[in-house]
Each structure stands twice: as C-alpha cells, then as structure tokens.
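Fill-in record for Glucose--fructose oxidoreductase.
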Amino acid sequence: MNLSDEEKAIGQDNFRRVTGELISTNPSRRDFLQDVTLAGAVAAGGFGAAYWGYGKKLDDRLRVGVIGTGDEGNVLIGALNPNYIEVKAIADIRPFNQHRAFYGDWSSDGTLKARPGLCKVYGYADRTAAEKEIAVYTDYNELLERDDIEAVIIALPLWMHHPAAIAAMRAGKHVLTEKLMAWDVAQCKEMARVADETELLLATGHQRHYSVLYDNAVDTIRRGLIGDIHSIRAQWHRGNLPGNDSWQPPLPTEMLTPEEISAGERAAKAAGGEEGLRQWRIEHQLVREIAAYKKRIDDPKVKIADKEKLSMRLAQTEKQLDDFRVDAAKYGYEAGTLEGGYHRTALEELIRWRIWNRTGGGLMAELGSHQLDASGIFISSQFEGHVKVNPLSVNAVGGRYIFPHDRDCDDHVYATYEYPGKGYYEDNDPTKAKVADANKKVGVVYSSINGNGFGGYGEVVLGTEGTLILEREKDVMLYAGSKTRTKVTVNDAATALDSYETGGGYTPAAEAVTQEVSRGYQEEIEHWAWCIRNGEPATTLHCHPKVALADAVIALTTNIAIEKQARMEFDPEWFDPASDAVPGGRTPRKAADVKV
C-alpha cells in the first residue's frame, strides 16, 4: 500500500490523538491504522498476505474438501479466497446445510453477508453449475478417498472433530478444524501426535491469532502504553431465553397443508389451551414459516425484489424441513431421556448438538475458548520470546439457571483464573519455569451468560498505566490510566457491521461507511494453504497443535472445575502433546495406535 508522507502523518496522528491530551507513542505495528483507515484495505484482497507476510496468492491453488457445512462451516466457506482455495467437494448429512453451502444463508441480510455460499464466492450461476465442479457427499469418508483432494476444512459438531481429523490425516490430507480442537484433552493430544507422525499440517480455527486488531492490541501492550497487566475482565453475554435460543433451532417435522396446520392448531388449543397452542406452534415452526412465505409470494402487493428474497428463504426453509428424513442414528447420534423426563431424539441431538455435553462443550468450548485464548495472547505479550503463557489455576461455577431440563449444558458460567504476570518468572522467561516472585500474577475474570446480552462480548485489559478495551472484535479503545475520557480509538470505523456469534445470528448495527474489520477467518485459511503449498513447518501456523491444545485444556478444565465445584491447578504436563497427563478422562494413545 503506497501512502504519501502526508497520509502517513495523518494516520499516525489519528492513532495518537486522545480527547483532552495527546499520548506520545511510536508508530503502531506496520502503520496499522493508516493502512486500514486511509487505504480501506482490511476487506480487500491481499491485505492479510501483506500484513502477515505470506504470498498474496497461490499459482497452484490448494484443492480442498469441506466437511461440515452448518453455521460455522458456512462462515468458513464465506471466508474462502479463490486465489488460494479450490473447493472440490463438500460433505454434510443434512440437506439444509448442503443447500446453504451453495446458496448461502438467507435468514437475514446479515447472515447472508456472513455466509454467502459457494455460488457467490466462486461465481457459479446456481447449484447445478457448481456441482459440475464440486461433488456433494453425505459420508465424509467418501470425500477422503479422493486423490485430488489435498486438504480438508472440518466444521463438524465438536465430538466429531477428532475422528474426522484422524481419518483425514490417515488419508494423507492436511487439516484445518474448527475450534475447539477436540472434545477432550486426550483427543487433542492424539490429533497433535498423528499430525507430527504424518508430517501433515493441522491448524485449529482460533481466528484471533490472525486478527489485525488483536495483533495491534498486543503491539500496544508490548510498547508499554498500558504498563504492566494485572487484571483482565472478559465476557460473552447473550439474550437467549427459553423459546428464543440460537443454539436451539427449530426441529423439522412432516410437511403439512394449510388446512392441516389450522386443524392441528385447533386440536392443540382444545387439548391444552393457549399453552398447548404455543407448544404446537413451536413444534411446527418451520411448517408455519413455509406457509407464510408462500402466502406473501402470492400477494400481488409484495414487490418483485422482495418476492425474490422470499423465494430464497422459502427454498431454504423447505430444505430445513427435509432434515426430517435424516437418519441421525446412522451417523452416531443418540436418543436419550434427561433429568426431568425430557426426551431427546437422535435428530435433535444432531441439530442442537451445542446444548448436549455428549456432542458439545458448552459455553466454555464455544465462546469462552475464544476469549481465554485472547487473554493468554495479551498476557504472553509481556514475556520474552513468543511463548504462550498458560494459566496457573481456575475457580469456576456454572449451571442451568434459566433454561428448563431440555438440555444438559450450562447456560451460565463464571470463572476466575490466575496467570503468571510480568516478573513472575526468573528473567521474565517462562521457558525456565523458575518462579522469581509468586505474587506477580494476573487475574482473569470471565463470564458467559444467557438471558441478557447487556455488554455483548469483549475484553478489558487493565494495566498499571492504562486500559485497553476490545469490543465485539471490531473496536479497540485505549485509555490513559483509569481516565475513561482520555481515549485513543485504534479502529475508527465506528459504524462497522456488528459481529456475529458462533452458532448464532449476525445482525447489522448499521451499514459500514468505511470498511468491515476482518475477524481473521480469511487470513487463517489463506496462511494455512500457503504453508501447505510451500512446505512450511507446522510451527509456522499461528494456531498449530500445541497452541490449540492449550486453548482446549483451559476450556475443558474449566468445565471439570464447574462439575467438581473445586479449584483446580493447571499441570504444565497437560499442555504438552508428548505427555500422557490429562485433567480428566482417558489417557491418550501413541500416534501409531490412533486409528480411524
């Protein structure tokens, strides 16, 4: 990016300016703000390559299969850069997910922006045209048998990360798997060991490692602007409530005619009153949506442009209803009866996998892992070298405070961690692991709740000389000392689109007037592809197995602490892929013994 000296001066002045006073700083890393604000290049092709130092394209694109095309899989599809990735096949057992993989998610304008689909990303006219180049499978093992596929992106439910990644690496494929790395620590270590044995690159999608905003926040800390970190407060609060939960999408039922819908509602109300009618409508939500879409499409008063959008939403909802025919038990999902008598079908476990402990990891795996990862990145920036510093202990509580017995994962989690701070280790070198001053610690307080989304999500980093706030992965604010009126705005795109939660919706706050801030999805995929094509070692990846293992250990140990209602100290051996030590569960196997 070629900026004039005048533009550079303006950019740096914007970075340094504070309401009420001017903080004197060195230029930010790679003149971040000037590149973003003046060149508007965050969303432009090539920015990640220029910033992170990898090639701006691949002359021989990486040939990839996408395994799992649900909510997060479709986000990753939307982040694909055709200059790096050639999608050869997808695999998913749900017709709904296959449909969205090609056409995107038309639930709202925001979801479509986050999940535009393969047709949009690669310029196909429709699914028929796309399928001439992209094969569709229900069984991902058939995808793995293809010799022309070099690598896979895995975005399956958490409990499937390990078996799919092992199968892929045993088939000679490089892997990028969504976070959390795996369902338990033993599985994480086995994945790391097989990756090492096969010499294949295994990356995990903790995208903050490729976020320019977070990287420049780290640069701010390293330059001493906020002094020594002594406390971090992080949260991810959501307004999910019973009957309105993004992790509990509607279940498919058999298709009904409008007459059958009316008859069903009358019968439900006669049997159970208004509550019976409400429950019937919840159960048949998709059927009722389809009827409503058809009615509006037939309405001559509705504009043609709106009818086209409604037609896409209708087609998508009809595919969602087609999931009724999926034999979930065939793919390992199980029916069961929960405490309180709630009965779950195998299909419900598949569709609502995040709310079951057998298939997911709850709030800590889905949300907390991101923010504890970020906290570790911030704290590690105060130490010598590029070693990720791990926590010393955790106290945690949680429970199902507002949701009924229709799930077994917690809906509220509160955790407090102790991390080593600057000066804790001798020579400030964590690799020596010799404690110099045991009082030099950083306290990290984390909460993730449902029922009230006040405050959204983000991190507040408190130092002895300043405060750094990161909000919703789009805004970074720097305050001098504890004066909340003296602020540096690192990202001035105040009207950028609001971020979307993992597994949830994506609601725009306003139209972006400058540029949208990258969350790092595209960059992580580009760099993974570039490292594979250029034969780079695994440690070149920003979130290689040892880094991903650490994030998993923290999240999963927190879940154990909640279950045991006890304080837990982290064993350094838990973070070592070569060690058999784990915080709970079975012992990991040697690489040679890990089979599909």
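KEY FINDING: Residues 258-283 form the longest helix (26 residues).
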